[in-house]
Specification:
This protein has about 170 residues and is α+β, with helices and mostly antiparallel strands. It has helices spanning about 130-145, 150-160, and strands at about 30, 35-40, 50-55, 70, 75-80, 85-90, 95, 100-105, 110-115, 120-125, 165. The protein has a single domain (about 35-165), classed as Jelly Rolls, CATH 2.60.120. A hairpin with a 4-residue loop joins strand 6 and strand 7. The relative contact order is 0.21.
Length: about 170
């Protein structure tokens, strides 16, 4: 493995960093369960990666049921910051705690949920930087408006955002 081709050619460095304070309010709230901070989007990283903080409220166990899925164009990684998050690695559900990490390559079946009954936080990393904000915003709107989608509408929504559902 070697370094990729240079993306910056100047002999002098540039003042180009982006800083985000820890107390920045979340960029998106999905119902009462999730608050999402767009730490670095594909747009801000020139498509190299997307990094999001996902804070999950304390909810009764069994009320969080996202299904398994995979992506064709990007990998997804999870790093648990606080609490316990159930992560599905395509074979097994694992209760992951602070410091635990899961990498899922393109095509890898995965899912996450908060079964703990307590608040939890994690970082979610997409590489390359897929435009996941639009997907999260559409989910937030569906929850906020109470809109009910048909199975075909869910399939179309997922396909537009490179998400393919799998029964687990």
């Amino acid at each position: 493995m070697s370094y990729p081709p240079p993306r910056y050619a100047s002999d002098a460095g540039a003042v180009s960093a982006t800083f985000r304070r820890a107390d920045t309010p979340p960029d998106l709230t999905i119902g009462v369960r999730s608050r999402v901070g767009h730490l670095a989007t594909g747009a801000t990283t020139d498509g190299q990666f997307g990094l999001y903080r996902w804070d999950m409220a304390a909810i009764p166990p069994g009320n969080s049921t996202p299904g398994g899925h995979f992506h064709r164009t990007f990998s997804e990684s999870f790093f648990i910051l606080d609490g316990t998050v159930s992560l599905y690695d395509g074979d097994t559900w694992r209760d992951a705690a602070a410091g635990d990490f899961l990498y899922v390559p393109p095509g890898g079946i995965h899912a996450f949920r908060n079964n703990s009954g307590a608040a939890a936080s994690m970082l979610v990393l997409f590489t390359p930087g897929a435009p996941r904000e639009a997907y999260f915003e559409e989910l937030a709107d569906i929850v906020a408006t109470g809109r009910q989608l048909t199975e075909d509408e869910w399939t179309e929504l997922y396909a537009r955002h490179d998400q393919y559902e799998v029964k687990i």
